[in-house]
Design brief:
The protein has 721 residues and is mostly beta strands. Among the domains are: 143 residues; 240 residues, no CATH class; 117 residues, Immunoglobulin-like. The chain is 2% helix and 43% strand. The chain contains 2 helices and 59 strands. It has a 23-stranded mixed sheet that branches. An 8-stranded parallel sheet has the order 8-10-12-14-17-20-23-26, with no helix packed on it. Strands 1, 49, 52, 54, 55, 56 and 58 form a 7-stranded mixed sheet that branches. Strand 32 and strand 33 form a beta hairpin. The longest helix is centred in the last third of the chain and has 9 residues.
Length: 721
């Protein structure tokens, strides 16, 4: 609107804010810091009546031989009764209110050995309660209570079958320890699973040395999950006919096998006989203590044996057997990432001088160890004959061969050769400790090999040439400061002089973790650290030296995963410790700075700003939401002037006055007459962490003398994240 100027005076209007100040979350002018911080199985209950199985089920005829004296060879003669899979004499009477069809969802529920036999003889399920096809489902059976059986019981598994003990026990009540197993698989290609089952208690501590399940066919898979085995007499958990081939034994979950631990039992045997492949699933733990006094070895395969440990699996065996392997050709251990193998020759169950890896010392044992995997082969009985033992390690953990205890005075090794091959990328050492406690170290750079001297040695250990024990970090926040300071601990190195060290750190919003295998993603960390283009939410820094402190700046307030390692270089050789992990919380810090004052003049109806450098700036480490919540009239302000959102032609003493906050791609306008709207400022280290301020508006009224206005503004500042 055009206003007539009656007097030749410049009309000046002033708009004043308080002096420079910081604004907090709750009021106008405070800077506030947040507190600094650093950083199963379910049982299926059934109240229904247990199923009733027919009492006239046909007895399965088995031809077995029970010797009167213990031998090192176990054999079994069985007949294939698969034809009895379905028959009128093997029916199950199901309780009317309990649907059971042998599927995974609706397993057959059993309480006696007769019911167990009848259930095993049922046909494989073809549909569930709703008619859905279940062709791939195994026949599934579930225990309702502990079940006992005798030497006259023998049940044939002829189809894929799962027997779930539901944490109950399957107990052998007879005194014949050389009879056939209760459960027998004599059909090739069958998969049989035993899970959540216990064997042996104080009343019934015995079993048969044909195992908890025996195999008389080829290409059979036996699966063991969460099984506890405590047996005194007849202590051999697993048997397969050595005349058959390609049988596989798989372990998952947590399993414990105690074989005549007090050495009082008879008819003891191997831990595993007859299988060619043993798999320990990722994240599984299997513990074996075999102190039975009969068989000569822990493993007696049909030919060569391959033992595979999945990532993060643990297999820990304590034994007093003269041999680890018996009657075999060459054998292989494959140890996955972060998996742990331990073979402890600790029990003196047999006398004499025999203590060997293989019964024939000319045979070869190969151990392949993946990143972070480890092995510990120790003897506390007598010196150990390694035979030919080759270790191929790909950035592994420690692979250790050692004497333990003081049961014998001489060296740990009686004979054999021990060769280490560095198949990875890092530099390793072979550390030896002699019988006189003298240490020596030899560096093994990739892809080279080293054959260790066994003479007069008590410990030979293949391990990284340098190591750390962990990483730690703390946060520090303030005005325009938001950082994590990290350091590593426990550094040690056997590298010779001339190597150059640096400490490397990576900070990430996400965790570098392989949840399936429960291990850190070492390769992912290394790749992203070296990459010139970092993934979103990842920052890195390198500090000189083996204990360099790293500071990562300009971090958004949140919890971070912090990783650290040490890397050393010498020419083209590179050695790195594994990455270690910790967590650090970066707390929120909120601080906002406004311009000292905003002023304008209005020589006509249009408002002109007094300056162009008015700003509102975030010093926070988190996005902040800023709102104009109250406008009050200050001292000396002309009371005749009224703030309005708009006015019409001919109005008098009306003022529209707005604060415009301008970001790179958006604006926020607050009307002093009716303030609404929110300005979002980003953290101090990001774009749009500050906004340019200006005044807009117009005045309706006479211009014949000067009128002053003064308004005080209250802002609310809050974290917006």
């Amino acid at each position: 609107m055009i206003k007539k100027i009656l007097l030749p005076f410049i009309i000046v209007y002033c708009f004043v804010l308080p002096p420079p100040m910081y604004a907090s979350e709750s009021s106008t002018v405070v800077s506030s810091d947040s507190a600094l911080s650093s950083g199963e199985n379910s049982s299926e209950d059934s109240t229904s009546e247990a199923p009733s199985l027919s009492s006239d089920s046909k007895v399965l005829e088995e031809a077995t031989t029970d010797s009167s004296s213990s031998t090192d060879s176990t054999s079994i003669s069985t007949s294939d009764n698969s034809a009895e899979e379905v028959g009128t004499e093997n029916t199950i009477n199901i309780a009317a209110d309990v649907f059971q069809n042998g599927t995974t969802t609706y397993p057959y529920l059993v309480s006696t050995s007769a019911e167990l036999k009848a259930a095993i003889n049922q046909a494989k399920p073809t549909s569930d309660a709703t008619g859905n096809i279940t062709k791939n489902d195994p026949l599934t059976i579930k225990f309702l209570t502990d079940i006992t059986y005798t030497s006259s019981d023998a049940f044939i598994i002829s189809k894929n079958t799962v027997i779930d003990g539901d944490n109950h026990s399957l107990l052998y009540t007879s005194a014949s320890y050389g009879t056939s197993s209760l459960l027998q698989v004599n059909t090739g290609g069958v998969s049989a699973t035993i899970k959540n089952m216990n064997y042996g208690n104080s009343t019934y501590p015995n079993n048969t040395y044909y195992g908890i399940i025996s195999t008389g066919a080829s290409n059979v898979s036996v699966n063991i999950e969460n099984v506890t085995y405590n047996i005194t007499n007849g202590a051999q958990p697993f048997y397969a006919d050595k005349g058959k081939s390609n049988n596989t034994l798989n372990f998952s979950g947590v399993n414990t096998f105690n074989q005549s631990v007090d050495a009082s039992g008879s008819y003891g045997g191997e831990f595993v006989e007859g299988y060619s492949t043993i798999n320990f699933a990722a994240n599984s733990t299997t513990t074996v203590k075999n102190n039975s006094g009969d068989a000569w070895a822990d493993f007696w395969p049909s030919s060569s044996m391959t033992i595979n440990l999945g990532d993060n699996a643990t297999f820990d065996m304590t034994s007093g057997k003269p041999y680890v392997f018996y009657g075999t050709n060459n054998n292989i251990f494959n140890i996955g990432e972060n998996a742990k193998l331990a073979i402890r020759k600790s029990y003196a169950s047999r006398t004499g001088s025999i203590n060997q890896i293989n019964d024939n010392s000319s045979r070869t044992t190969t151990m392949n160890v993946a990143s972070g995997g480890s092995a510990d082969i120790t003897t506390g009985i007598k010196p150990l004959d390694l035979g030919t033992f080759n270790v191929n390690a790909t950035d592994s953990g420690t692979v250790n061969f050692a004497k333990t205890g003081s049961n014998f005075a001489n060296q740990a090794f009686s004979s054999g050769t021990l060769k280490f091959t560095n198949a990875g990328t890092n530099v390793y050492q072979v550390l030896s400790t002699s019988t006189s406690n003298t240490n020596s170290s030899s560096i093994v750079t990739p892809p080279n090999s080293l054959t260790a001297s066994l003479t007069n040695q008590n410990i030979i250990s293949y391990q990284p040439a340098m190591s750390i024990s962990g990483v730690s970090g703390s946060s520090n926040v303030g005005d325009k400061k938001s950082q994590i300071t990290a350091s590593v601990s426990g550094f040690s190195s056997s590298l010779p002089s001339g190597w150059v060290y640096q400490t490397e750190y990576l900070v990430s919003k996400k965790r570098y973790y392989n949840s399936a295998n429960n291990i850190l993603d070492q390769s992912g960390l290394t790749t992203d650290f070296k990459s010139s283009t970092k993934p979103s939410g990842v920052k890195t820094v390198a500090a000189s030296g083996s204990g360099g402190v790293g500071t990562i700046n300009d971090l958004l307030a949140m919890n971070y995963y912090v990783y650290g390692r040490v890397t050393a270089t010498s020419g083209s050789n590179i050695a790195s410790t594994p990455w270690y992990e910790t967590q650090v919380d970066v707390p929120k810090h909120t601080a906002t700075v406004f311009s000292n004052s905003l002023g304008f003049t209005s020589p006509g109806s249009k408002i002109l700003n007094d300056a162009t450098d008015y700003r509102i700036v975030s010093y926070s480490n988190t996005p902040t939401a800023i709102s104009l919540t109250r406008v009050t009239t200050g001292d000396g302000s002309d009371e005749s002037i009224q703030l309005v959102d708009s006015f019409s032609v001919g109005s008098e003493n009306l003022l529209t006055l707005n604060v415009l906050a301008k970001l790179s791609n958006s604006n926020t306008i607050w009307s002093l007459a009716n303030p609404t709207g929110t300005l979002i400022l980003q953290p101090y280290f990001e774009t749009d962490s500050s906004a340019a301020l200006s005044l807009t508006g117009a005045y309706a009224g006479h211009f014949n003398h000067i009128k002053n206005v003064n308004y005080l503004l209250d802002f609310t500042i809050q974290n917006s994240s």
